[in-house]
Amino acid sequence: MSEFVGHFFNALTLGAIYALIAVGYTMVYGVIKLINFAHGEIYMFGTFLGLMAVAGLGWHLGFAIILAMAGCAALGAAIDAVAYRPIRGSSRLAALITAIGVSLSLQTVAQLIWGANPRAFPTEGLPAFLLRPVLSVAGAELLGKELLVWVAALLVMLLLHLLVAYTRIGKAMRACAEDKVTAALMGIPVNRVIAVTFMIGSAMAAVAGVLYSLKAGGNISFRMGYYPGVIAFAAAVLGGIGNLKGAVLGGLLIGFTQALCGGYLASQYDFAFAFGLMIVVILFRPWGLLGRPESARA
Amino acid sequence: MSGLAAALRGWLARRSGRDLALDGFFLALALAAAALPLVLGFDSKIANVILLVGIYVLLALGLNIVVGYTGLLDLGYVMFLASGAVLASLLMLLTKTEAGWVLPVGQTGVPEGARPFCGEGGFLPIMLICGLFCAGLGALRGIPTLKLTGDYYAIVTLGLAEIVFLVMFNEEWLTGGAFGIKIPKGCRPRLLGGELYYDTPQFYYLVLVAVLAGAVVSWRLQNSRLGRAWAAIRLDETAAMTCGINVASHKLIAFAVSGFFGGAGGALYALWSGTVAVRSLEVWQSFLILCCVVLGGMGSIRGVVLGAAVLISLGELLREDFVKGPLAGLFGLLGIGGRDPSVARFLIYGVLLIVIMRFRPQGLLPARRGGRPPAQDEERAMRQAGSELFAIGPGPAGPEGAASGASARPVLSLRGVTRDFGGLRAVDGLDLEVRRGTITSLIGPNGAGKTTVFNLVNGILPASAGSIRFRPERGAEAELAGRRPDLIAALGIARTFQNIRLFPDLPALDNVKLGLHRRTSAGLWAALLGGPRAARQEREITNAALRYLDFVGLLAKAQGTAGGLAYGEQRRLEIARALAGDPALLLLDEPAAGMNPQETGQLMELIRRIRDRGVTVLVIEHDMRLVMEISDQVYVLDYGEKIAEGPPAAVRNDPAVIEAYLGVRGGDLGARPAPPAGLGAG
Fold first, then answer.
1. How far apart are the C-alpha atoms of B483 and A186, rounded to whole Å?
2. Can you give the residue range of the structural domain that contains B440?
3. A82: Cβ–Cβ under 8 A, 6 or more apart, which residues?
4. What is the CATH number of the domain that holds A64?
5. Which residue range is the domain that position A40 belongs to?
6. Contact A97/B681, CB-based, under 8 Å?
7. Can you tell me the distance from the alpha carbon of B266 to that of B93, in angstroms, rounded to the nearest whole number?
């Protein structure tokens, strides 16, 4: 029982992280129909920025997260401006290849800046409650940092929902997702809206990166974004790409699949299960759980 | 001998100066690659880099078949390289001892007195086995992913490659895990009296020959009937199906051939590296190979060779001390001293992908699309030879022929055909008959469901209910509902599209050749092995295609791309492509749209000529002059329902028709609700 609860906690944490990353994927995909392959690298950069602020500058974790969000938002907007905007009218093949190029470049830049050896958050200097158990169920303990992941994910999602559903920029984003040309005709500055979408998605990836690395306790390296990035894309597809609630649902489902299959079947294959789930979903239900199939057109 | 000389002269005459310069450049490159190690030694650094370049050229040529020819982004190509390399090393390790066959993975040497499986057999069977294994793997992987396009295909192939990688990485009993499989010296296969080792001439020239073979195979495929079909699939899958191309089987062939290249390349890679470590076969290898293809130019063989040569030698250059030193100094200035300068190559790969896509998406040496056009004298000779493939209809209809006869059985009959889009019923219980040898028109206001009827007949859309029966003169009666578009095309139904769906990048000639696709048969083996039969068939195809172009008056435009034709010419080219399928029934969707009165007049004459040769024509048209002048029978659709049918004169005066077009008779013209929106096409 204690084992199951432990896996359950782990699954929920993992799921919350994936949901946070997947939301960024799904927002960008919704608006410009691009798999932003570099999203996982933004998550990685966010983690490093947070780590620098805490370990290098001695900042409080809260401020470090804010710095990471701001830095990633800027990075996301910059990537859009430099790499994606110039090829907006090109084929999707061209866009995807560009995205792979961005991903490869960012990984290498991170490796050049921070080296190849994995790093970890220092244990001192962090708020004390993070490492203390805050909840104990059937012998399995929930640490403060895991709770922090849940609470933060919930809070950020809620804010995002309010933003998309009730604000002017949210409305503009939804309009661009529906039809960019018409949105532009209505006077919506489409490129600015896309940039904002990148910024928001990137900031959320930064939150996910810092929180996950706190929770996992290490493995901060230039390669850390690749798997979570692809898996989060799977989560976005699973929920129905372009659909925010779907991204959350998909993130949780993939988190559970990975944690429970990894926990009970074969831990070295936890990512393989997640990839497998992604493939099955794309093959059999490409529009996802909450999405709608594109109506057949000739 | 003089024939050969003439052929050579003809070939030279067709090549531009730039072409010849490039030919010379690549010839020099090949000669240099063949000769350099003779001077520098086969164990020299240069020879080693050339080997690696060669292996990646082969791999990139394989990826190019899927990415460049069929236009699908395969991000999991590394799985073929990895599978081929692991399988090859296992096959080389397989040894026979007194106790039977053993597989000494993870051991330092071969057991005493053991006999390697491949020792005398040589390496070629191993390469072949690895290639075939990966061809099977490629086809197997292709089956579930056939329907996927674009992003989803890319991400699924990536996911599968990751799973394969994780399995290889974790199953140490098979792959040696992180340590890899070492191929001990005694286990290496022999070829022409020497062991295949990275520094032996035998291995060196084996790789060069393999690269040459790969390039020749790629070239032959690209210029074959198969390659043309791949191009059609890349440019417009729906139009390709309408030409009678079986998209699924053609894609599977591409996947298998691509897998073969990957597997054979993997076998060479195993020999080159000596130790196959799964760690070095991660997914970034896919990206590297993709980068070679993209840099050189997707679909361009010369480009792919150049791309691989540039990128691989660049990567190796960055490992050299004379580059590493200054680079490390630069890193020191940037405050990142101590980092491994050779990783900078990944930054170069990444930035190159971005820059190429932005400034030169067609790559350094763009592919020239389409087959070689025939020279003028060749063309003339061909046109004198006559062609069995050129056929339009069964010939002129007899005096009691169908044009006048109500007695003739209908060639097409729809019964209760219905199609729903979500809550919208686009076609509602339609009954329709098209009599043999007639011109039948389908008219109605925009959004009436006319194009949907075409899509149902030619199988692009499945009908929600009803039956569609086709009775060609030749062949048995067939139910069309539920059949694939390419099979329906094969039965003898061809069509054009309202919004013209040609293959714009291909020459007009190749567009028509694609229309002939289903009536010809040259496949993979013909493309690979050639032979006089395949060559004769290709000549026949060219000949017939020229005649179809002549029939619609476009002979002079054969060599230009379809996208470069004027609007009216594009419409006629699409008709030529449809006719090339030798249909019994031709569906024309608004052929006169956007034409001026003079062009429309020529079009009417063309449609009549087609009908007079015995092809039944069903036409959707808004131009009432055309409809009234050429139709034998007119059907009027509104809101998916048939509201009138009969000869043109009767339909013109039908009150229901007038109401549908002009609003309530004698009443308020604005009273009629707007036609249903969102249907896309009428």
1. 44
2. 410-492+583-671
3. B354
4. 1.10.3470
5. 2-284
6. no
7. 16
B241 in a domain, yes or no? yes
Helices A226-239 and A39-51 sit at what angle, rounded to 10 degrees? 130
pLDDT digits (tens, 9 = 90+) for B563-617: 999 988 999 999 999 999 999 999 999 999 888 899 999 999 999 999 999 899 9
Alpha-carbon torsion (A140, A146, A151, A153), positive or negative? negative
Cα–Cα distances in Å, from A17 out to A206, A239, A281, B290? 10, 15, 20, 31
CA angle A245, A247, A253 (to 5 degrees): 105
Which chain B residues are within 8 Å of A278, Cβ to Cβ? 155-156, 159
The C-alpha of A155 sits at a distance from chain B's nearest C-alpha, in angstroms, of 30
CB contact under 8 Å between A104 and B287, yes or no, is yes
Confidence of residue B412 (pLDDT cuts 50, 70, 90): very high
Chain A CA closest to residue B145: A283
- Beta carbons within 8 Å of B289's beta carbon, 6+ residues apart: B56, B59, B60, B63, B77, B78, B81, B308
Q: Is residue B349 part of a domain?
A: yes
Rounded to two decimals, the pTM is 0.89
- Asked if A297's CB is within 8 angstroms of B343's CB, the reply is no
Say whether both B189 and B50 belong to one domain. Answer: yes
Could you tell me where the beta strands, DSSP code E, fall in B455-602? 465-470, 478-479, 493-495, 585-589
Number of domains in chain A: 1
User: Is pLDDT above 80 for B163?
Assistant: yes
Asked whether residue B345 falls in the same domain as residue B437, the answer is no
Q: Which of B152, B343, B357 is nearest residue A282 as measured by Cβ atoms?
A: B152
Residue with tokens 């990142």: B336
Tell me the average pLDDT of chain B. 86
Report if residue A233 sits inside a domain: yes
A199 within a domain of the structure (yes/no): yes
- Check residues B651 and B578 and name the one with the higher pLDDT: B578
B156 closest CB neighbour out of A103, A107, A279: A279
- Quickly state the pLDDT bin for B237 (edges 50, 70, 90): very high
Asked if residue B337 belongs to a domain, the reply is yes
Question: B607 near B617, Cβ under 8 Å?
Answer: yes
- Give yes or no for residue B507 having a pLDDT over 50: yes
Average pLDDT of the residues of chain A: 88
Q: Is residue A290 part of a domain?
A: no
C-alpha to C-alpha distance for A21 and A207, rounded to whole angstroms: 9
| Domains held by chain B: number | 2
Question: What are the chain A neighbours of B350 within 8 Å (beta carbons)?
Answer: 100-108
